[in-house]
Amino acid sequence: MDNSVSNAAEAGLDRNSVDNKKSLDKAESTVVVRRVPPLLQDLSDEEFAALEKRLVRKIDMRLLPPLIIIYIMNYLDRNAIGSARLGGMEADLGLVGNQYQTCVSILFVGYILMQVPSNLFLNKIGRPRIYLPTAMAVWGVLCACSGATKDFKGLLVTRFFLGFVEAAYYPDTLRTGAVATLSVWYARRELGVRTGIFYCGSMLSGAFSGLITAGINSGLNGARGLLAWRWIFIIEGSLTVFLALLAILVLPDFPANTAWLTEEERQMAMYRLEKDAAGEEDWVSSSTQPIVEGFKLLLRDRNNWILVVIVYGAASSISINAFFPTVVASFGKGNTETLLLTTPPYLFACIVCAAVSFSADRMNERFWHTVGPLATALVGFVVACAATGIGPRYFGAMIMLPGIYTGFNMSMVWTSNTVCRPPSKRAAAIAFNNAVSTFCSIYGSYLYPTGAGPRYVLAFSFYAGMALMAIVACVVLRIVLTRANHCQEQLEREAEAAGREAPPNSGFRYVV
pLDDT by residue (tens digit) across 61-98? Predict the structure, then answer.
């Protein structure tokens, strides 16, 4: 087969090996028996499948909802500055020239500095239940403080530290802490749709942001002597702190140290991920996670350098988040109507991202599910840049956002699938690729100089070029991984024909 071996098929093979182990030669069955946890060895195939299904459903209910809610607040807080701009922030703080753009970009400097250390530290301690909500509470306070700033310097400082702390959860160019957490709970065939559902949080935040800001602008502008833009920061930051306290009560840690798993479920959770990676264990304890070694392994992996190009190209247009209200404002509508018009593209992006993620997992395919959205985004950029009428430009906006988010999501899923073991290497890959791709968000805000509207030729032309670069890199990665799978198949066939021991990573296939 040219894709990843099905986990169910692998589990079935091993279940048969265990059930029939008494009739097998001891030398041939030792490895298989040793790898099957004690509480799973006496289960029938039906019992084994039922336990796994029940476990996945339990994980879905306990892990996904809190992660999605935290992610919604993550994006609301970081992108509140875009809505605050329409609420009079620039005039009230006396921002001139490129000072607004600088306040947008400085957040990503903090991201870059903290992304890799934060994700590796999380992988080291294995306590996302404590670490992620704590970071969330801190960035909520920082967001609220943004509403109390008096000048450019104050806003600049709060934005820098906001990015520094938010890097613990999910950088603008893909979920470090959150994706690292998802990837130690789900098998590769399950990760795409879960990551897509999780990633919908960023799109829902974009939709909610317009609605929330429209309400604040119309109902709280001037309340208690504060302009609407200050209330945007204060309300969203305060809500973030409240939800962070609730998240501590429901978020799980890793399979090896989560209290709400039975011992049988714990062994199943760890065993199925071990099988998914051709026998290598996932997170077991902090003492087994060599942080520096994982990063060194990553730097020597040529596949990940191709993935860096894909992720960077896909993430280059993410900086549109802070300027999307400004882009829509160029249609010439009022503030409230402009904010409401930002909602449909984000909702459509949410639907498309979830659908593509589900299809990618169901078909166990990554290339076309990554290239398709990137190509759609490219078309959206060209239309928005070339058209002059409101209708065509809004159509471009409607298709560019689904393409941006879905293409980026799938590029990070492909990263998790390709650089999957050891866990410290996978954590380094997710963090490093995010950190590198975040550089584009630092200079991305300067692609929208004053007077560039309504077509924003510079920004959309640049985004189109980056999307094309990512598509080319996808083609290269497909060729490399397909050849690697073919070579692995050849080695296994030759070993079987010669009666030799199976080669390393026997049964493993890259998802292409």
Answer: 988 888 888 888 888 888 899 889 888 899 999 999 89
Letter for the amino acid at 78?
Answer: R
DSSP string, 62-85: HHHHHHHHHHHHHHHHHHHHHHHH
Q: Is the preceding omega at residue 422 within 30 degrees of 0, hence cis?
A: yes
Position 46 pLDDT exceeds 50: yes
Averaged pLDDT for residues 460-480: 96
Using CA of residue 142, residue 146, residue 151, residue 153, what is the dihedral sign? positive
Q: What is the pTM of this model?
A: 0.73
- Which has more pLDDT, 2 or 234? 234
Q: Which tokens belong to 173? A: 């160019």
Tokens of 375: 């190509």
Asked if residue 475 has pLDDT above 50, the reply is yes
pLDDT at 33 over 60: no
On whether both 89 and 138 belong to a single domain, the answer is yes
- Examine residue 433 and state whether it is found in any structural domain, yes or no: yes
Q: Is the pLDDT of residue 199 over 80?
A: no
Identify whether 304 is part of a domain.
yes
Question: What is the average pLDDT across 332-361?
Answer: 89
Average pLDDT over every residue of 281-286: 46
For residue 492, give the nearest of 278, 249, 274, 263 by alpha carbon: 278
Domain co-membership, 20 together with 127: no
Count CB atoms within 10 A of the CB of residue 245: 12
**CA-to-CA dists, residue 153 to 112, 158, 430, angstroms:** 21, 9, 32
- CA 510 from chain centre, in angstroms, equals 20
Tokens describing residue 70: 């935290």
Contact indicator for 301, 291 with CB cutoff of 8 Å: no
Contact 73, 206 (CB under 8 A): no
- Domain enclosing residue 18, as ranges: 9-38
Mean of the per-residue pLDDT values for the chain? 82
Distance CA 60, CA 457 (A): 43
Report yes or no: 440 and 466 within 8 Å, Cβ to Cβ: yes
Q: What is the CATH number of the domain that holds 129?
A: 1.20.1250.20
Task: Tell me the C-alpha distance between 86 and 94, whole Å.
Answer: 14
Closest CA to 68 of 216, 204, 220: 204
User: Are residues 467 and 372 part of one domain?
Assistant: yes
pLDDT tens-digit series, residues 445-464: 899 887 887 889 999 999 99
Q: How far is CA 491 from CA 106, 477, 486, in A?
A: 50, 21, 9
Query: In total, how many domains does the chain have?
Result: 2
In a domain, residue 503? The reply is no
Q: Residue 138 half-sphere exposure, CB side, CA atoms within 13 Å?
A: 16
Residue 476 belongs to a domain: yes
Longest dimension (CA), the chain: 83
Do residues 23 and 149 both lie within one domain? no
**How far is it, in rounded angstroms, from Cα 494 to Cα 496?**
5
Distance of CA 478 to the CA centre of its chain: 21
30, amino acid identity: T
Structure tokens at 344: 């449909």
